[in-house]
Amino acid sequence: MPRVNRTIVLSLLVISSSVFLLFQLYYYRKYVGKAGPHILSRTGHLTSSDVQWQTVKKFLALAQRFRLPMFLADTAALGLLSQDALRQRDRQVREPHCSFLCTDRPITSFAVYANLWKYDPGFLLAAEQKGFELLQLRGEDPRLASLDTLSGEEIPLHFLLRLNGHVIQVVFLYERSGNYLWHGALRLRAHADRSFAPFKMLDYGRHAGVYDRYRPQLVLTVLDGLDVQVPHNISRFLSEQRHARFLECRYRDAHNFLQQLFPDDSSAAAVDFRRKAKSLLHVAARTLALLDIPFWLSSGTCLGWFRQCGIISYSRDVDVGIFIRDFRWDIVAAFRNAGLSLKHKFGKVEDSLELSFVSDDVKLDIFFFYEDGDIVWNGGTQAKSGKKFKYVFPRFSLCWAELLELKVRVPCETLDYVTANYGASWSVPVKSWDWKSSPSNVQENGAWPPAEWAGLIQVY
Q1: pLDDT tens sequence across 292-346
Q2: Cα separation, 102 vs 224, whole angstroms
Q3: Residues 259 and 126 sit within 8 Å (Cβ to Cβ)
Q4: Which of 359, 340, 440 is nearest to 393 (CA)?
Q5: For residues 108 and 183, what is the distance between their CA atoms, to the nearest angstrom?
Q6: Quick one: which of 125, 30, 112, 24 has its CA closest to 71?
Q7: 3-state DSSP call for residue 97?
Q8: Quick one: which of 59, 50, 70 has its CA closest to 115?
Q9: 8 A C-beta contact, residue 191 and residue 58
Q10: Which residues 6+ apart lie within 8 Å of 156 measured at CB?
Q11: Model-level pTM greater than 0.70?
């Protein structure tokens, strides 16, 4: 058997090893040479996850260069974050991996604190130079609107930046006088490219939204090898995002109502009442927030917001609604601690509960609402007779609004709510009002047994 030449064998091994190393170098430079995670398909091409990661990386580099005060607001990405991930936020992921930013969605959302960023047109120019296609969406500035001024000045509301089919949405958050953050709805102009992005999949823009001003507090973390700011309390932020829908006051209609049809009372007594009502509503909001009890504007207070963007001066009280499921037994003590006196307590938790407090000669009526199939209702009680009444409303959801420089909830279906209570002529002021017969939705509901009056009809 012929002997194998060791030199030839060694040479062949060196050559084959060199070829393999050259192939590895080519493969690395072509597919894996860039920093960051890469998830390759069987064909060796970049996947949609890779495209998403590379697009976010380029955007974050631009944002850092132009000092955009922003944070990750993408609901899918934030939903993937766990508390364990936050605790290990400084740990770099070394293996090819994309756990949080690669959501398999064609959009990644960020939010920008508009008041902290001086608008720099160079940002958009630089984005175009990096290959991004841009769509700017602007709208009227609601902070300049009032009953006296109907400004049409526009501000940036949303930026959409598209690269390789992936879209970055930038949502602008503005500070409002009610001590909250606001973003506008996304509305396309007639000439806008409706194929630019999958608009129905956007997390933000279907309607205006609001967030507490001092939340979300942000933390800087490392996600998939990239420095990103995220809300400190992610679950709280996501909860706010789900319930963020905001209804703007109808300033133009209110302006016409007050300036042309029914001028508001400017007497000293009316001005004094509106001042007291504002103070009482703020106290009520703070007290219920401490108890974590959501409430909304109801009855005449809701009508005042909807019709004239203010308080009805002749109503002489403040009305709020609370679902009975949110009732807490310490609510009376909390209002007393806030300086209010209990005026009356009618009904019971199981049926027609109603509380009324007073402060500085202005009454706060709290109506508790009961859910019953397709309707909700609240009760009323006549103290001298024990008669019960029922006020029926169609079911509604809750939205945020602003009244008297306070972020408050109102029924999203406000027109239906107001019409149920005040009828089709709700836009015409009625100063002579009987709570037992005037509402369109009132029904007699029996009477409390006299033997139970002591516990169910309490007047102070």
Answers
A1: 999 999 999 999 999 999 999 998 899 999 999 999 999 999 999 999 999 999 9
A2: 9
A3: no
A4: 440
A5: 17
A6: 112
A7: coil
A8: 70
A9: no
A10: 114, 119, 136, 137, 138, 172
A11: yes
